[in-house]
Each structure stands twice: as C-alpha cells, then as structure tokens.
UniProtKB/TrEMBL annotation:
Record-given protein name: Pimeloyl-[acyl-carrier protein] methyl ester esterase
InterPro entries registered for this protein in UniProt: AB_hydrolase_fold, AB_hydrolase_sf, Hydrolase_4
Molecular function in Gene Ontology: pimelyl-[acyl-carrier protein] methyl ester esterase activity
Domain of life from the UniProt record: Bacteria
Entry's EC annotation: 3.1.1.85
Length: 249
C-alpha cells in the first residue's frame, strides 16, 4: 500500500556536507515527500542564497493546508532555514545544531565562534581544502562519539568545490537572524546536542527563548550531529511534534 504523504520536507545540509547525510533520516520518514538541496557547486554566497530561496519558493508554491512545506536544516542549513522562515517561505522548521548568529564577540563566546576562526579556515582553504575539512570534522564529535566511529558515517570529504566552501563560510560570517526571531511565526522543532562545540548548546536555548513557537529537544552526550545514529528516534519526535502542530496535541 502506498504511504500517504503528510507534506514535503526540504533538507538543507551543513557546511561541506552532501545532502546524502540525511538519507537514513529520510528513510525513517516515508510519510513525507523529500526534497534536497546540494550546495557543492555554488560559486558565491549570493548563488547559495538564491538557490536556497528558489527551492523554498518552488515548494512553498506547491504546498497546501493538507500538504505543507517543512524545512529541515543542519548548522549552516539551519541558519539558512531560519532566514527563509523570516521571509514566510515555510510552514514549519526542523533545526539541527542551529544558531541565530554563528560569529560572536568575546562577551558571547558561549553562543558561537570567533570571527578569527572562520577567517583562518577561509585562508587555509586556498592551500589545502581537505585539511580544513578534516580539522572541522574532528570538532563535530564528543570523545565518546569518536570512539564509537560515528565520524565514519558522514559523506566523504571533498564533495564541495572550494568556491562553495568559501561561500558557505562567508554566509556563516555575515548572516544573522537574531534580530528577526520574533517575526518567525511558524512552529520550530530544535534538536541540539548538549556537548556541541560548533554551535554551542546555549545558542539553541537562545533560539528557543526568541522564537514564538519553539520546542527544544536536548540530546545529552551529543556533539554537532544530533541526528546521526538516532534517526529512528528523531523521526518519531518529528511526527509527534508535527502532529501537535496540526491537531493541537
């Protein structure tokens, strides 16, 4: 019997990641149609932003009350998803390890990364992109997650062209949605690892406090990839959350 669709989820991956990173999670959600964005060949920040808005506008135009558009974003993809929501281009958000502003000043160090960190990555990309990606991936995990071999489950390094890597970092340096969080009217499910070093857990609490309709699912002992290895449980949480939004619990 064919599974009835409950809507479309547009998936936005994190920096340097292929959309295949969501494959197992998508397989656990057969009751939704799935659309993927691939940023690997973006040539500039404006190209990446335009690609994202065009995809959201396309699927939003096709959405209905019985077939809504939900945008799922991880890290960089989460920031871009929040940007789309602020423009009214989605009915709901599922955000993994997301933040309203990636770059933070010294007095907000517990909420994000210093600008010098990203600028150093941008400089190093022109010399050896594989080294930059490798060092970045080492920060994604807790020690226990590394010992468990979770890092081996990510798509291979080298999937994004250097211009796309630079474009993504440029967006992380310059985009912010903190100032418009109160205007994001759609429901939001935040899923965040408590031990995240890339987008610290305090950034998720900031989102939960600033968004009008947000639920925060905290995952203890987890770093920057809260869905990997937990796809079945995450899929159940997504269904529970979206059922609450549509039927009031």
């Amino acid at each position: 019997m064919r599974t009835a669709r409950r809507g479309t989820i547009l998936w936005l991956p994190g920096w340097s990641m292929a959309p295949a990173v969501f494959d197992q999670l998508r397989s656990e959600l057969p009751d939704y149609h799935h659309a993927l964005l691939d940023y690997s060949n973006a040539k500039a920040p404006d190209d990446m932003l335009a690609l994202t808005e065009a995809a959201a506008a396309k699927w939003r135009a096709n959405s209905t009350e019985n077939s809504p558009l939900i945008i799922g974003g991880w890290s960089l993809g989460g920031l871009l998803a929040l940007r789309l929501a602020a423009k009214g281009l989605t009915d709901g958000l599922i955000l993994f390890a997301a933040t309203a502003r990636f770059i933070r000043p010294k007095d907000e160090a517990e909420l994000g990364q210093p600008d010098a960190y990203v600028r150093q990555m941008m400089r190093a990309l022109t010399t050896d992109a594989a080294v930059v990606e490798t060092k970045f991936r080492q920060r994604l995990w807790t020690n226990d997650e590394q010992r468990a071999g979770k890092c081996d489950k990510l798509p291979p390094i080298g999937g994004w062209a250097v211009p796309a890597l630079l474009a993504g970092l440029h967006i992380l340096r310059n985009e912010e949605v903190k100032s418009v969080l109160s205007k994001i009217a759609c429901p939001v499910l935040l899923i965040h690892g408590v031990e995240d070093e890339i987008c610290p857990y305090q950034a998720a609490k900031e989102l939960a406090d600033g968004l009008p309709q947000a639920q925060l699912l905290s995952i203890p002992g987890c770093g920057h990839v809260p869905f990997l290895g937990r796809e079945k449980e995450i899929a159940e949480e997504v269904r529970r959350w979206w059922n609450e939004q549509q039927h009031g619990g």
